[in-house]
Structure formats: C-alpha cells, structure tokens
Write a structure and sequence with these properties.
The protein has eleven helices and five strands; from the N terminus they run αβαβαβααββαααααα. It has 271 residues and is of the alpha/beta class. It has two domains: 171 residues, Rossmann fold; 74 residues, no CATH class. A five-stranded parallel sheet has the order 3-2-1-4-5, with helices on both faces. Helix 2 packs across helix 7 and helix 4 packs across helix 5. The longest helix has 17 residues. The N terminus is likely disordered.
Length: 271
C-alpha cells in the first residue's frame, strides 16, 4: 500500500506564520554582509533556500587587505549581484575626527565606521528586515544591532533559525569552495595577532609605513602594552621582524577554525 504521508499538509507553527507575515510586509530585505565566515555562509545559504530581492550590504573601512577585496568580488559572483557599499567614514576619517587610535577600551572604530552608518542606511529603507549573521552557538555572546528607536526595521538571524553552529558554517563554506581570508577587517586592528602584523610587514610595506605614521601622528599605539613580549609600537615591531624573528602562524592566509577556536577580531567584523 502506498504511503500517502507526502500528501498530508504540514500545519505551520504560529512563529512561522508570524515570520511569513513580517517577510511579506517588509519593503526591503537587507543582509549585513561583512564578508566574515558567518555572514558569508548566511548570505549564500539565504539565496539557496530563501531567495528574495536582497540587498547585500558591506561597510568598507578603507583599510581592508587585497585578499578581502578579492573575497568580496568572489561573493558577488556567487550571489550574482553587486554588493552595496554603505556610505560612511573611513577608519582614517574616524581616527582624525577622534584625534585618537581605537583600542579595546575605546572602540569607536566599529561604532562610527560600521554600525552607525549601517543603521542609518537600513532606516532609510524602512520598512525592512535586516538579516544578521549571528550563529546558534553564540546567541548569549552577541545580540546583534540595537534597533531601538529605528522605526520599521526588524532583525532576523537565519543561522539561529537554522540551528547552525561554527562547524555548520565552516562545513558549508568548504562545500561551496569559499575560503575566508584570515583577516576580514582592518589591516591595523588592535585585536589582531602578531602573526597578522608580521604578514602586513612582509606583504604590504606601504601599508606598514602608513600605520607607523598614524602612531606617530597620534602619539599612541594600536597594540596594548603588556599584552605579550613583543614590542608595542609598530615601528619597533618592524625592527624585530627585520632581525629575523618570525611569529607562529605567520604563513596562515585563510581562516581555519573548529568549534573550540575563536577569531581575534571585532565581533561585528568577524560575522
């Protein structure tokens, strides 16, 4: 006897019905696409299983490495549409405006260069749904964007809805043949490891000199004193590298993580 279970209609849950109503009412569908592992996987999977007329938005800082620009171009090919560059200040603009370098105590860079311009842009497209790459295994750590006071914009976290953790994200990216650069945010981020500073010194001497100039102009350093045994100033760090010191992990060019590891970068930029 044939099984007729395929003819049975599945009763939608109240939560599903509410979501479909919200999606139908939303005038714009905005994907926060930093280019990090989570947002990259989210964007590609959304186009596979929830295809809509999305706006895939990035907030460039002006200090991305060439491999990050190449990654964005690769995503444009896979998504078959251009990425929207959200207008906003560059990192250097923010440094000059604040007369200071960002650090872990004063992270104006993320707020002024990425978050605030993105909120303004999303609000201009209201009503809208904003899709954010927060995983199911980190919901207690990251709350996403604060949309309080922004009328008509709702946040959706597809990776949470799908139950995707870090291994799901990395497995999916591997399946799609997508390699995320080891550094997806600024080339002078105070979060980055010594190995990443070494790669900047080795591969981008012009950028290295620009970072030295920013430190001399401000009178401060990107690196925090006491964080490790390496020199704090970028100029002195370069002298150490010139003497032949090569830090562990210097050759890594793409992100390779498992569930036990976390990237040392801004949470917003790592999405």
């Amino acid at each position: 006897m044939a099984n007729d279970s395929t003819n049975q209609m599945t009763t939608p849950t109240v939560e599903t019905m509410r979501r479909e109503i919200d999606v139908a009412r939303a005038g714009s569908h905005i994907v926060a696409l930093s280019g990090g592992k989570d947002s990259s996987a989210m964007a590609l999977r959304l186009m596979e299983i929830e295809p809509r007329d999305y706006r895939f938005c990035i907030t460039p800082t002006g200090r991305e490495l060439p491999e990050m620009d190449a990654h964005w171009k690769r995503l444009e090919c896979l998504l078959e549409r251009p990425l929207v560059r959200v207008p906003g200040p560059s990192l250097v603009d923010a440094i000059v405006a604040n007369n200071a370098l960002p650090n872990f105590r004063m992270r104006f860079c993320t707020r002024q260069v990425k978050i605030e311009p993105f909120i303004v842009y999303a609000a201009s497209l209201s009503p809208a749904i904003c899709y954010v790459g927060i995983r199911a295994d980190e919901t207690s750590e990251r709350a996403g964007t604060d949309w309080k006071g922004v009328e008509g914009v709702k946040q959706d976290c597809p990776l949470v809805r799908w139950g995707w953790g870090i291994n799901d994200v990395l497995g999916y990216l591997a399946k799609r043949g997508v390699e995320v650069p080891a550094r997806t945010d600024c080339d002078c981020c105070f979060f980055q490891r010594i190995s990443e500073w070494w790669r900047l010194w080795k591969n981008h001497p012009d950028r290295w000199r620009e970072v030295i100039a920013l430190e001399k102009w401000s009178g401060h350093t990107f690196r925090t004193e006491g964080k490790d045994s390496w020199p704090v100033s970028i100029e002195d760090l370069g002298k150490k590298f010139e003497a032949g010191y090569v830090p562990k992990g210097a050759a890594q060019m793409t992100l390779k993580l498992d569930a036990s590891q976390r990237p040392t970068m801004c949470a917003w930029c790592a999405r």
